[in-house]
Design goal:
The protein is α+β, with helices and mostly antiparallel strands. Helices cover 35% and strands 27% of the residues. It folds into three domains: 82 residues, Rossmann fold (3-Layer(aba) Sandwich), CATH 3.40.50.20; 70 residues, Dna Ligase, domain 1; 242 residues, ATP-grasp fold, B domain (D-amino Acid Aminotransferase, Chain A, domain 1, 2-Layer Sandwich). Bound molecules: ligand MV4. The site of ligand MV4 has 15 residues, from strand 8 and strand 13.
Length: 449
């Protein structure tokens, strides 16, 4: 097992990783920018290294500075968390070239899944259902028109180097297709340096359901069930649940099985998430994330498995500590992402936190690096806390979430707590009756009365 891990991240996820290390008797090294010197992740770590000024490009994305920090502190491994360098294949290989273990998948798998055309082609070949569309890149406009007629309009043009909603064009009819393909290609080239685009049937009212997987790199792959992440605004998730209100145990087993078989033949290593659109009882692969995800705690609550601990064990060369039969799904969990933003128009609200009082009690977990007197910085992501609530049933979970949101006191800055309080009162939400478009409409209705 590792003696010391460098955590190449900040905020709540740096703390989350630190906690797993502490419980495993592993020493931690925090890295931080100049403005993060008094951050909680720095205070708790055994050692810390300043890696640059506030802009992430010069600190949390500064590969030479992070490698140097790991070298001078003698760290055996680096955990990248999410965001920043977590899905940078180049970073993963540089880490390994320095004899340091990268806690995550191989650089090749990160690169494969980062290329949306290559990953779709690969997973389709491995038996995962994909959205009907072009097989590979769209090059020829006449061929594109043929495919669009076959699958039916509307279609969606996506950038191969995109992902997470960046670089997409909806096409309603044949006359718009050529212009949209050109526009998508030009935009993709400017944004990502790669003009490759592909085409898919546009699904009108899907849910976003993702499957958590973990592999040992030798063909053993298990799944930890699904998360429903349909509540998003501008491709930012706001609330996630495990399990999905739309899925039962049989549905979960079926898609989980398909996911495990496919990733087993890839010899997938460490944690990963396969994202699907789910419409009319069918799953359609869209993307795979090769990192620990923000919303992993809801999976931990219903399975009892510590995903970060398991990541660290796998990275150290241990086999999976459980088999598929050992994984059971009990109760229901919901995560509310608390952002330092206005609940009405989502304008960022950085600044000093005056009062800070967290909810507690049975079934309540708060993953946050906030403390009274801390000042939320304008330079980074506005996520300041994840309120994660467990209940024996979805209804118990919702009742508990009501009271936990009521207990939570953060003053000095605006937060998304009031928005969450309204969402969980809505009858559609209570019934689990929502899709990827629901939140945008809810937010609009909430402001305009
Ligand atoms: C789609 C889609 C409908 N049809 N693909 C957006 C983010 C990226 N991961 C894929 N996205 C979508 N792909 C087809 N063929 C609708 C979306 C989409 C979306 C997906 C998940 C969660 C929220 C979303 C919001 C708008 C659009």
């Amino acid at each position: 097992m590792f003696d010391k891990i460098l955590i190449a991240n900040r905020g709540e996820i740096a703390l989350r990783i630190h906690r797993a290390c502490r419980e495993m008797g592993i020493k931690t090294v925090a890295v931080h920018s100049t403005v993060d010197a008094d951050a909680m992740h720095v205070r708790l770590a055994d050692e810390s290294v300043c890696i640059g000024p506030a802009p992430a490009i010069e600190s949390y994305l500064n590969i030479p500075a992070i490698i140097t920090a790991a070298t001078v502190t003698n760290a055996d491994a680096i955990h990248p968390g999410y965001g920043f360098l977590s899905e940078n294949a180049n970073f993963a290989s540089i880490v390994e070239e320095h004899g340091i273990c990268f806690i995550g998948p191989t650089a090749d798998h990160i690169a494969l899944m980062g290329d949306k055309i290559a990953s779709k082609t690969k997973v389709k070949e491995l038996g995962i259902p994909v959205v009907p569309g072009s097989d590979g890149a769209v090059r020829d406009i006449d061929r594109a028109k043929e495919i669009a007629e076959e699958i039916g309009y509307p279609v969606l043009i996506k950038a191969s180097a995109g992902g997470g909603g960046r670089g997409m064009q909806i096409v309603q009819e044949r006359s718009e297709l050529e212009t949209a393909i050109q526009k998508a290609g030009t935009e993709a080239l400017a944004a990502f340096g790669d003009d490759a685009v592909y085409m898919e049937k546009f699904l009108q009212k899907p849910r976003h359901i993702e499957i958590q997987v973990m592999g040992d790199g030798n063909g053993e792959v298990v799944h930890l069930g699904e998360r429903d992440c349909s509540l998003q605004r501008r491709h930012q998730k706001l609330l996630e649940e495990a399990g999905s209100p739309a899925l039962n145990a049989d549905g979960r087993d079926a898609i989980g099985d398909v996911a495990c078989k496919a990733l087993s033949s890839l010899n997938y290593r460490n944690a990963g998430t396969i994202e699907f659109l789910y419409e009319d009882g069918e799953f359609y692969f869209i993307e795979m994330n090769t990192r620990l995800q923000v919303e992993h705690p809801v999976t931990e609550m219903v399975t009892g498995i510590d995903v970060v601990r398991e990541q660290i064990k796998l990275a150290s060369g241990a086999p999976l500590s459980f088999s598929q039969e050992d994984v059971t799904f009990t109760g229901h969990a919901i995560e509310c992402r608390i952002n330092a933003e206005s609940s009405d128009d989502f304008t960022p609200s950085p600044g000093p936190v005056h009062t800070y009082h967290t909810p507690g009690g049975l079934g309540v977990r708060v993953d946050s690096a906030l403390y009274a007197g801390y000042s939320v910085l304008p330079h980074y992501d506005s996520l300041i806390s994840k309120l994660v609530v467990y209940g024996a049933s979805r209804n118990e979970c919702l009742m508990r979430l009501h009271r936990a949101l009521e207990e939570y006191v953060i003053t000095g800055i605006e937060t998304t707590i009031p928005l969450h309080q309204d969402i969980i009162k809505d009858p559609d939400f209570v019934n689990g009756d929502y899709n990827i478009h629901w939140l945008e409409k809810f937010v609009e209705g909430r402001i305009n009365g």
